[in-house]
Structures are given as structure tokens and as C-alpha cells.
## 1
Amino acid sequence: MTASLGGALTEADPATAAEPVIADGPTEDDWDAAVAAVRRLPPDGRVLLICHVNPDGDALGSMLGFGLGLRRLGVRQLQATFPHPSDVPEPFRGLPGLDLLVPAAEADPAPDLVICFDAASVSRLGELADRLTGPGTALVLDHHASNTGFGDVNLVDPAAAATSVLAEELLARLGVALDAGIAECLYVALSTDTGSFRFDATTPAVHEMAARLLATGLRPGDISRRVFDSRPFGAVRLFGEVLGRARLEPEAAAGHGLVWTYATLDDLARHEQRPYVLEALIDPVRCTAEADVSCVVKQAGPQEWAVSLRSKGATDVSRVAVALGGGGHRLAAGFTGRGTVDEVVERIRAELAVPAPGGDADRPG
Ligand code: 5GP
Ligand code: MN
């Protein structure tokens, strides 16, 4: 999500997940089915857009950008939402299309068409999961290799740098021209998921898409400052404290090294900060040259921790996250841990010590 200190992000997507379910991108039949699902909406057809819990730039940006496109197509009964809590993280509060958002509790219970963005499975949709099984059509746009194909129509491309790549293509196939509002949303999505165009998924096609988006008149400097390079002074001081207690364990992760730190609810309270600021904390931690694996453990409740894991390439952190009840990509994954910080980190250490099947540690990232 938010990036920091030169701008990386929390959802890195250059990697493939542990258990690919959908190996190839959408077929022409899939695209045709997706276009047909939109085109056959009745004049007052109701559309609900949803994305994953704790939405990042790609989830929100692809959802809102696509929503603005549907509005241009004349869709009037249109809502966008994501699971509770419904706060939009500060870095995304300037996004066009925020007026489409409603709290999950107010989301249409039975839309004619529900479109789901950037979620690999229904477990990422919280209380909105039941919208996928209603009488309407469920269309899924995603780029996680672990996507379970839970829609009636699935546009899932693990090779895509971001879900917004699929959103842009579907808008083009629907005949919707890019305008500055749509483009800004899709640009935020693309730039966050590629770590400001630094990760391996940054193909020529990604830069070509960025060029199409910028050609609508976007100001990339303003957008990047807002999304990546801005945080309250209290968060700057909080980061200093939390980084000061980081631990380096060179022997962990089969000798590839682990660096980790944690932040508590009390840390947040002392610095008068809200939890979203911690999303960017993984970025300065993962700079550690001596460690392949980096980890930030963020307190969410008395015995509950949201864990972010990153790898530089030698370790499949999605395997670790899946083993501990979460998921993600090979180089960027997460899970919810319970107990004390030390117990959570000890479980991570133990999983990192398990030999990877098929000699994963030798594969390049
Ligand atoms: P982050 O560290 O930015 O929260 O998440 C990194 C990656 O791991 C993202 O692709 C995200 O979807 C995935 N991820 C993070 N937390 C969880 C979780 O609790 N469950 C699952 N299934 N995936 C997660
Ligand atoms: Mn994404």
C-alpha cells in the first residue's frame, strides 16, 4: 500500500504464489463473457463493485477507476465497497470516484452484477462474500496466481503487474475511453503494485499502460507525493522508534537472514497515529542488505497481529504465510498471528527453517 522512503509498497506482485490455480491469463472467451456480462445489464441494472479487506492502491484504484468507466457507460445504479472497517487509508483519500463508496453494511444485497477486484479468494471479502453467490453474475478481476476462480466469469492473469491492467483492458473492450479520473485511479493502482515501477513485473507493457494513463494529463509528481511520500510527523517519529528495535537474525531462513520488528497499539497511541501508517513500515525494514526475509508484526488486538512478510528472492514467503493461515505472493505475503509477538515470530522462524519443497531456495526471484 503506502510506500515510504523512496517509495516501495506493501503489496509486491512480481511473484507467483505457492499453489497456482490459474496459470494462464484470460482467454478470448473469458473476455467476451466479461463484456457480455456488462452489456446485458438492463437499463436500471444494479452493479456492486467490491475489493479485498484493508484495500491497497491496486484494490481501490482498479475498483474506482473501473467504476468511473461504468458511470461513463451510463450505469446509474452503482456502488463500490470493501469489508469493514470502511476507512479509506489516508494516501488514497484524494482518489477520484470516492463518491461511489458505501460502507459494506449498506451494500446492495442482490445486485445484477457484482465485480470483484484484486481478491484471490472469497476469504478476503469478509462479510461481502455472500454477494458472490447471489442471483446476479459474479465477475472477478485479479492477478494473484493463487486465485481460486470463484466468479462466474474470471479475468485472472498472474502475469499482470496489477489488477488495474485487467481493468484497463476490460474498459477498452467495452469502448470506454480513458479520462483523467479513470486514469488517476488506474495509475495509483499500477504504481503501487509495481513499487513505483521498480519490481520485476514492470514490463514494457506496464510502461506503455502508464504512458496511456499519463497522456490524459495526470501529474505523476503530485500523485506520488500523496501516495508514497507523505506521512504525519508523528508517524515519522513512530517509525524511528520501531526501526530502532529491529532485530537481524543472519542464521534464520536457512542462512539467508531474517530482519523483523513490531509495533503495538500502545506505540500508535503514544504517537497519536492510526494503524494505516504502519503499512509503509515494511519498506525501510526490507532495505536491510543482510537479510533475504523481512517481517513487520503489527498489533491489531490484545493477542492479534497482522504480519507482513517480504523476500528478496531466496525464500518463498507465501509458503510461510499459507502455513500460518494467510496467503500472498512468493515475495510478498501476510497472515494474522495470535499470541505474543515472540510467539508469532517464533512460528515464523520455525516455518522459515522448514526446507522448501523442490529446492525453492535456489530459484531466482
Ligand atoms: P501486506 O503485507 O501488504 O499486507 O500483504 C502482502 C501480500 O500478502 C498481499 O498480496 C496480500 O494480499 C497478502 N496478505 C496479507 N495478509 C494476508 C492474510 O491475512 N491472508 C491472505 N490470504 N493474504 C494476505
Ligand atoms: Mn494487486
## 2
Amino acid sequence: MNSRSSELFAAAQKIIPGGVNSPVRAFRNVGGEPFFVDRAKGARIWDVDGNEYIDYVASWGPAILGHAPAVIVDLVRDVASRGLSFGIPNPFEVELAQLICEWMPSIEKVRFVNSGTEAAMSAIRLARGFTKRDKIIKFDGCYHGHSDSLLVKSGSGALTHGQPDSAGVPQAFAGLTISIPFNDVDLVRKALNENEIAAVILEPVPANAGLYFPRENFLSILREECTKHGALLIFDEVMTGFRVARGGAQEIYGIKPDLTTLGKIIGGGLPVGAFGGRAEIMDQLSPNGPVYQAGTLSGNPLAMAAGLAQLRELDRINAWKILEEFGAQLEELMPKNDATTFHRIGSMFCLFFAPGPIVDLASAKRSDLKSFAKFFHGSLKRGVYFAPSQFETGFISTAHTPNDIERTAEIVREVL
Ligand code: KE4
């Protein structure tokens, strides 16, 4: 019985909508009540009632080295003692920017913000300012944070105006976004032919509707088509950036987007986002150019230091090799049956409760959510914490061990 968690949740619900500060945490997709965290270390989380879990949510991506890695905590503690925020340039901003530009050559200049939402929102405004066009294309199932232009789903006529994907988004706004099924090259071509498009934004490896992959050549066709039509190609690598490879998904697929959005890992767990790309585009940003964008805490020393410590450590231990080994071990041990489909890239994975192939939101939505919910709670009861939604992705960290993964696979087999 999670008494302390229940008390806290009851109190939270009185003063915080849904008792949470981000909807997915409320367990609405799986039923039951969320637990409240007391502390976390490495691959482990303990809730306020003393229950211990092997964690595969990793704060939705940032905890790629596991929780509270000394290399980050020690540096943040030291930097904090010299001031928490200045609103004045500090050396860490330059160092982290240099590292990002070095590891992601498509990024010639980068600007830091405080969330992935802010990064995507700003990148869209920049693309509109640079191209002097208003319309954008996104893909059903791809999530780029909650800015109005991006909370849009396919319109009635797939290629006409999008429809709001949330109350409060004006139709006038949504109408400037065209949302298309992922992997549908013909519809993208048609949309680009029939409209003046400022940008095409996508997660190169969609991980917000469960995890699925671009079809052969999908990304290179997008690259060609955007170039042909003068639309900017924006890769949202908030999740995949520095996780699936040192240079992100763009390194794996060999595609150079015009702009990239980043977040999560580059903040080491502290609030962060970033967007960057071709210098001629980025120089349209204030104070150089006419596209305004700003932020009190953008580039703050704590998030910059935490991000630097995390990225440097990933490089020092060649984390991507370790993460690939752990991911392959989990995949190898996962039960194979025709009722479920297991997708993985590096340390990102998803177990769909649906037969394959799963290539877009529509196919992901065939998943049996009741079975997923039972799987989630069965695993949680046995000490394994997966994302509380079928439409999320799991993350392995370098702090997991082969034993953790073996234990996890045993529990998954038991629960299934
Ligand atoms: P934030 O504003 O939540 O920092 O980032 C938005 C965002 C942008 N782009 C991608 C590809 C993302 O995955 C996200 C945020 N991811 C979700 C996890 N599915 C955050 C979890 C949550 O909303 O609580």
C-alpha cells in the first residue's frame, strides 16, 4: 500500500491540476495513482514508501548516465556555490555550444532555451522569419512540445488545414499547420507542391507514439524535397540527440537538417532546450536579425554545467557502445510472440501490444491498451518502472547492468 504517495497525491490534486505538472505522470493511460519519488541513484528509483524500482523512464531521456551521477552532481554543487543565475553571459554557455556544434556539424550556431517546447516553438518562428512563409508541415504522432503551432493534428482533408489538437489553439493557428501520416512520401510531396511551406518538422525517429522508424529513404527524400521547395528541414532531436549516437539521428541516417532542436540530455537533468543550424538562418535571430526570441534563464550556468558534464562523460566512456550492448541484450531476451512488437534503436525501446508492422501513429494505435496497462502494473509491482503509457519510449542508461537487464527480461516474461 503506497500510503505516503497516496497522501501526497491527494494533497497535490487539490492544488495542482490532475496532481501533476505534466499530464503523462498522472498514470491516466494505465490507471492507478502515480508514486512520488523520494530519491534516485543510477538505474534505481525509490518512492516515498520505500519501494525500489529499476527505472526505464530516465526522466523521459535526460538520465542517460543514470540518476545523480557524481560527475554532474559535484560540478553543479560547485557551480551553484558561485551563483545560480546571472542573466549575463557565462563561460559554460560557450563551452556547451562549442561541443554541440562539434558533435553535430549541421549546427553552425546554436541558441539555448529552457525546454524542448521552447526550442521547437522558436525554430518554427525562425523558419517562418527566414523563408517569409507561414505554413509548416508536421507528422501525426510526432510531438514537439506544446506550442500552439505544433498542437495540431491532421485536418479533415489530410492536405488542407490542420485541426487543433488541444482546446485553446485557435483554428486560425492550426490552419497554418499541415499534419501528415509519418512515412507517407506521396502526401509530403503533394503538400509541398500545393503550398508555400516554411518548414517540415519531424522527429527523425518518432518516439512519442511509441517508437517506430523512418522507411528506407524517407529522410533523404524529405531532405531533397525541402531543398527543392525552399522549405527548411527541422529535425527534432530533443530525445534522440546525443542518445542514439554521439551526433544523434542525423549522424546515423547521414542527413543534414537546416535546423535541429535539442533538449533533455544536454541539460543533464536541469531545465534546458536548444535550437541550432545553418549560420545564415540562425543570424536572423535577435539581436542580429528581425526574429525575436529571448529567455531569462536561457544558458543559465547550472544547466550548462550539468549538460557539459553529462556530454563529456558520455564521450569519455563511449557511452553509445555500452548503450547499444545493453539494448541488444534486452532485445535478445525479450519474449517474441505475434501479439506484441518490440522496437529498439540503441538504448531506446518500446513494446507495442499489437502485431507489426508498426510504421506510424495509425498502426501504433492498434495497440491493446488494456493489456499494456496490465503489463505496466505487473512490472511495477515486481520492481520495474516502464513509461506509464503505451505511446512513450523506454530508455536504458549506462548505469544499468547486464544483471538489471536480465532481471527485467525475466519479469517481463513473468508478467506477459
Ligand atoms: P519539453 O518541453 O517537454 O522539454 O520537450 C518537448 C519535446 C519536444 N520534442 C520531443 C521529441 C519530445 O520528446 C519532447 C518531450 N517529450 C516528452 C516525453 N514523451 C516529455 C514528457 C512529458 O511531457 O512530461
